[in-house]
Specification:
eight-stranded parallel β-sheet, TIM Barrel, alpha/beta, binds 1,3-dihydroxyacetonephosphate, single chain
Length: 255
């Protein structure tokens, strides 16, 4: 059985003192927990990697970046590369988030280069894919997903700890969650794609997270689905009580 992953994507939120406060509270709440195969990942803004690592180093909480450059080093003002993330002992990095695809023109080809760069430095990518509302309404959701998968994983050995996050764009930050049936249908489609392109064994290993208005009140129904292995959580991961509650739900389902 795959373990469950509860990952928080903070996006561009929290000041330094708010980060410190969050970490203090979260660790206070998680220190006594038996995580029972539930993996916690926090993806803060890169400025806060060090303080996050200070809090999490002897704990079962992993730190991830929200983005990485496709280049290793050089004159790319403002960018952060995979070797830099690796030198900060980061475990994960989100790539291909729909906000980066939309605001920073991140194509499947760029996503593919970023994944390759991360794998070279032993950082596990969290690869985001998902359709827009108009694509769903046109009935082309699976075509879009298949195209994103083929583009992102071109020439990539999926036999590693790659995590896929299905994040329907229409559900992100809107309060409109995909129903568990809608989400499971696409998660199953993704797993079947992996089976076809790689193997059954790999498909059974890869974690597929759901993202898009996942909250304490709907997480259980979503992660109960056989192909949903946890969540990539935006807004609700910023509030310790909510994030902690979601970790508790995941733990209770793994007991
Ligand atoms: P929300 O949970 O705020 O909808 O964000 C989801 C997301 O984009 C996580 O990467």
């Amino acid at each position: 059985m795959r373990d469950l992953i509860i990952a928080g994507n903070w996006k561009m939120n929290k000041t330094f003192s708010e980060t410190e406060e969050f970490l203090l509270e979260l660790t206070k709440r998680t220190d006594d927990k038996q995580l029972n195969d539930v993996k916690i990942i926090i993806c803060p803004p890169s400025l806060y990697f060090e303080i996050c690592s200070d809090f999490t180093q002897d704990r079962e909480i992993s730190i991830g970046a929200q983005n990485v450059s496709e280049h290793e080093f050089g004159a790319y003002t403002g960018e952060i590369s995979a070797p830099m993330l690796s030198s900060m002992d980061l475990d994960n990095c989100i790539v291909g988030h729909s906000e980066r695809r939309k605001y920073f023109a991140e194509s499947d080809k760029i996503v593919n280069s970023k994944i390759k760069s991360l794998l070279e430095y032993d950082i596990d990518p969290i690869v985001c894919i998902g359709e827009s509302l108009s694509q769903r309404e046109k009935g082309i959701t699976k075509d879009v997903i298949q195209q994103q998968l083929s583009g992102a994983f071109k020439d990539i050995d999926l036999n590693s700890n790659i995590i896929i996050a299905y994040e329907p764009i229409w559900a992100i930050g809107t309060g409109k969650t995909a129903s568990s049936k809608q989400a499971q249908e696409i998660h199953k489609f993704i797993r079947n794609w992996i089976k076809k392109e790689y193997s059954n064994k790999i498909a059974e290993k890869v974690h597929i997270l759901y993202g898009g208005s996942m909250k304490p009140h709907n997480i259980e129904e979503l992660i109960k689905q056989p192909d949903i292995d946890g969540g990539l959580i935006g807004g609700a991961s910023l509030v310790t009580e909510k994030f902690n509650k979601m970790i508790d739900v995941a733990i209770s389902m793994r007991k």
